[in-house]
Amino acid sequence: MEGYGGSILYIDLTDGSFKKLEMTKELSSKYLGGEGVAVKIFTDHVNPKIDPFDQRNVIVIAPGLLTGLPVPTASKTAFVSKSPLTGTIAESIMGGGIGAQMKAAGLDAIAIIGKSKNPALLSIDDDLVRFENASPYWGMFTRDAAKAIKEDYGDFVVATIGPAGESLVRYACIECEDRQAGRAGLGAVFGSKNLKAIAIRGSKDITIYDPDRLIHLALGWQESMEKSNVFIEDTKYGSGEFLEWVNAERGVFPTKNWQEGVFNERKKIDPYYWAPKYAIKNKACFACTKACGKLFVVRDGPYAGTVLDGIEYETLYALGSQCGNPDIEALARANELCDQYGIDTISTGVVIGFVMELVEKGLIDEEELGFDCRFGIAEAVPKMVELIGRRDGLGALFGEGVLRISKTIGRGCEDYAMHVKGMEPPAYDVRGMKGMGLGFMTSSRGACHLRSGFYALDLTGRFWRFSGVDRLSPIGKGEAVKLMEDFMMVYDCLGVCKFSRSFFKIEGFIELLDTAIGKSFKEDDLLLIGERINNLKQLFNLGAGVGRESYRLPKRITHEPIPAGVSKGAVLTVEEAEKMLSDYFIARGWDENGFPSKEKLAQLGLG
Amino acid sequence: MFSDFYFKIVCSSRTLEKFECYCKLLVNRSVVINLINRKSRSQVIILLNHGNFRYGSYMPLCLVPYPENCTGCRFCELVCALSHDKVVNLKKARLRIVRKDIISDIPVVCAQCIDQEKECCASVCPEKAISFDGTALVVEEEKCTGCGLCEDACAYGVIRVEGTAKKCDLCGGDPLCVKFCPFGAIRYEEMKKENFQKVLSLLEG
Q1: Which of A35, A367, A595, B169 has its CA 20 to 30 Å from the CA of residue A491?
Q2: How many angstroms away from the CA of B3 is the closest CA of chain A?
Q3: For A371-495, where are the alpha helices, taking DSSP H only?
Q4: Using CA atoms, how far apart are residues A114 and B140, in angstroms rounded to an integer?
Q5: Superfamily of domain A7-201
Q6: Binary contact (A214, B87; C-beta < 8 A)
Q7: What ipTM was predicted for this assembly?
Q8: Predicted model pTM
Q9: Cβ separation of A104 and B92 shorter than 8 Å?
Q10: For the segment A430-462, what is each residue's pLDDT rounded down to a tens digit?
Q11: What is the dihedral angle through the alpha carbons of A509, A514, A519, A524, rounded to the nearest 10 degrees?
C-alpha cells in the first residue's frame, strides 16, 4: 500500500514472542494512521476495566499516515494506552524519529502486551525482532540510555524511558531524539512492562503514488510556510513566542497554582529575552522544516552546563509561572532534569506549584520536605524535579499526581488540586477562556489543550470555519469544541504537527493524500474519521467508568475569579460548565451521560 | 532553469589542452558555453546574451555544509531519495544527516571532490565512470560495473552501490535539498574546504 509500511507487529513481552499481521486497506480508509490506527488496535485488545499497570494493558505505537514522507511538519508518532494518571484511554504524540524508522522497517503499528521478566530492550532491524537485555541501561537517564544503546547496537533510533518511568511515576514520559511523548504517564506503562526502550532501524522503500507531484506540493507548502508570520515567530522564539501577549493582552496565563492569571515577573522567562542569550541554534522534530525547537545552553552561573531542547510555552508556565519562578536558568535546569528523569514537564510543574501552595498553607511540612519550597523560590523547582524523578521521600507521593496527592492530604486541598480526570492542566486559564474550559472537560485524557486546540479560537476570536468567538461566553461552545476535536484528530492520524494547522486546515490534506496514497478524501470524510475515533475513545472511557462526574472542573476555576489583569473577575461557573457540557453531548449525538446513541454509532460504522 | 538543448564537443589543439565544450541554450535565449579542462577542473564560461558576450572563469558550485545550523530534521534526505529513486527511503539519499547527540546534527554532503587532492570516487574508479559534467561529478551508468571501490573510497560515505553507483548530482544545478533548508545548513555555493574538514572532525569527535 502506497505511503504505508505494510504490517502491524504484535509483541508479547511475557514470553518474548511476536507476530506480524497485514496493515489492511480497511484500517487505512477508516482510521488513516497514527492515533486513529493506534486507538482502533488498542480498543480491540484491551478490557477498559483493567488497571493501567496490569500486564494485560497494551501500548500501541503508530506513525501518522504522512509521517516519514516528505511533507513539511509531518513528524508525529502516536503512543496509545490506558493512562496510569487518569485511568482513561490516552494518547501521547511525539516528534522524534521513531515512527519514520517504523515505516522504514515495514511497520504501521506496534502493539505491546505483557511484562518482561527482566528489563528489556525491544530491537527491530527491518524484519529482525529481538528482545535484548536492558539491565545495563536500567536506571540510566534518557539521554545516557539512548547513547549507550546506540553505542552497543548501532545507528538505531531509540525511544526510551528514564528512571521515573522505571519507578512508575504516574506522569512519566517516553523520550526520543530530545522530544517526548510527554503526557498521561505512558512512560510508566513502559516501566510496568519492564520495557526500558525500543530501538528501531529500517531500510525498506516506502512507495508513493505520485513522487514528483508530492515533491512539487511539498515545495509549494514550504515556500508559503516560510513567508508566514507563524514561521518567523516560531523559528525565532519557539512556541513561547506569544507569552507576553497572553499575559498583557488576555490575562489568562495561570500563575502560582492558578491563584492568578498574570505573571508579573515574566520578563526573564519570555523567549524574547532568553532566546538571543541562550539559544544556540534551532532543533527540529523529524521532517519538520519549521524547526521551532531551540538548543538551549546555560554557560555560567549555578546551573552552568545545562543543555536541552527547549524551552516550550507550556514549560515556561509549568516550571515558571505556576511556581512563581522568574529565573530562566533554574527553569532550564528543571526542564533538563524532567527530560533526563523522563517526566512530563506540565504535570511536574503543576505538582510543584500545588506543593508550594500546600507548604504555604501549612499542609506540608517544609522540614519533612527538606528545603524551602514556596512560590518564587527558584532553586526549589529543580530540587523538586529531582525529588520526584527519584521518588525520594515525599517525592514518592508527588509522583502520583495532584489528584492522588490531594486525596492523601485532604483538609480541603482538593479545591485547588488543579486537574480534570486526574490530568494536570496546561497554560490556559480557562476562567477567561470558556471554550477551552469545555475542551479541558471533554478531552478524553483529561485537561488538555491539544485535543481540541480551542485556545486559538478563544485567544484570537477566530480559526478555520469559526469567527466572532467570545472567550467569556459559554454559548455555542458545545458544537464548536466537538468540531475542533474532530479536526485535531485528523492531525493526530496524519501525523502532522498541530502548529501547522493554520496552513493546512483540513482541505490542505486533500491533495497531499491524493498524491501520496492515491486516495481521494473530501474534507467531511476526514472529519468523519476524526469523529469516529473520538467516539471509539469515548466508548472505552465509558467502559472504564469515566462518567459525567469526572468531567468536573476544579473548584478554583468555578469559584475563584481571576483577581487581576485584563481578565479580572472572570470565572467559569458550574452552571456554565454544565450547560456547555450538555450542549457538547448534544452536538456529539451522545446522551446526557455521554453515551453515544445507536444512530450515531451506526453512522460511524461502530454500531 | 536550463532547457535541455545542450551538446558536447570535445576538442583539442596543440596550443590548448584538451577541453570539453558544453553549449547550453537557456530559456531566455542566452547561450552558455562552458569550456572545461577535466584535468585541472578549470572552466571558462562564455555567456552570449542577446548579442553581448561576457566571459570569465569560475569555480563550480557545490553543496557546502554548515553543521552549526543543522536542526536534524532530515527533510533533505527524504526529498533526495524521493526525487532520485522515486521512493521514500532515508538510506537511499545521496547525502546523510548524522544526529550525533543533543548538540550535534551533522549534514554530510558530497564534496564533488573538486580538487581530487585525496582519493575519491572518481579517482579510484577503474572504469573511469565518474566524471565532471559541468555541474557535478556524475556516474555514467553504462560504464559502471558496480564494483564498489567508490563506496570504500568516499571519505563522507555518501556514494552507494545499488546495481550501479548512486551519488549526488546536484540535481543538475538546482539542488532540492537546499530548497528545503531555511536554516542554511546546506548551501549551494563555492567550495569551502574548512566546512568539510569540520564535518569530518565532528563525525570522528
Answers
A1: A595
A2: 19
A3: 380-389, 395-398, 402-409, 434-442, 454-460, 477-494
A4: 54
A5: Aldehyde ferredoxin oxidoreductase, N-terminal domain (3.60.9.10)
A6: no
A7: 0.96
A8: 0.93
A9: no
A10: 999 999 999 999 999 999 999 999 999 999 999
A11: 30
